[in-house]
């Protein structure tokens, strides 16, 4: 959370969110292992880089574009989550493209850096939304 966006009592928005953040985070955390397997050549399936960049096709992406946007779209933290989620999928696609081209070192570096940073920003934003909405597990 940015220093200028400290949570105040007036910012607390008790909502019944229609998403299980724990489940969607676990789904996204599984991507790291799957991407690693593709980088190492340990997976035979064709996972198209274009498909990985489709950030609005997973559960979190659909929620962000529908109920999430209507409930929380006015909040800066929501916009940060949208951005981090889009970056997550962008880098997943870029990593897959490099892996398919056998650019293992570049794919691995991107996984460790940009992809990990996007994942971290996504996690931070979700935690902030949980605090703002009272959805703390």
Would you kindly provide a written description of the structure presented here, covering whatever features stand out?
With 137 residues, the protein is mostly helical. The chain has one domain: Four Helix Bundle (Hemerythrin (Met), subunit A). The protein is 67% helix and 0% strand. The protein contains 6 helices and no strands.
Features:
Four Helix Bundle (Hemerythrin (Met), subunit A); 0% strand; elongated; mainly alpha
In short:
This protein is mostly helical. Helices cover 67% and strands 0% of the residues.
CATH fold-level topology: Four Helix Bundle (Hemerythrin (Met), subunit A)
Beta-strand fraction estimate: under 5%
Biggest β-sheet strands, sense, barrel: none
Give the name of the CATH architecture.
Up-down Bundle
Tell me the structural class. mainly alpha
Helix content bin: 55-70%
CATH class placement: Mainly Alpha
The count of helical stretches stands at 6
In the residues, how many domains can be counted?
A: 1
SSE arrangement, N to C? HHHHHH
Q: What's the count of strands? A: 0
Oligomer: single chain
Shape: elongated
Roughly what is the average pLDDT, rounded to an integer?
Answer: 85
Runs with pLDDT <50, length 5+? Answer: 6-10
């Amino acid at each position: 959370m940015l220093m200028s966006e400290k949570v105040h009592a007036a910012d607390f928005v008790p909502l019944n969110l229609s998403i299980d953040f724990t489940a969607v985070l676990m789904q996204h955390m599984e991507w790291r292992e799957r991407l690693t397997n593709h980088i190492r050549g340990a997976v035979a399936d064709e996972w198209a880089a274009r498909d990985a960049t489709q950030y609005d096709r997973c559960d979190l992406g659909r929620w962000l574009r529908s109920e999430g946007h209507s409930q929380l779209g006015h909040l800066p933290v929501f916009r940060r989550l949208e951005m981090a989620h889009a970056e997550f999928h962008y880098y997943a696609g870029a990593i897959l493209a490099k892996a398919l081209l056998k650019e293992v070192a570049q794919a691995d570096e991107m996984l460790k850096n940009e992809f990990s940073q996007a994942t971290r920003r996504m996690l931070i934003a979700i935690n902030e939304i949980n605090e703002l909405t009272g959805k703390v597990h």
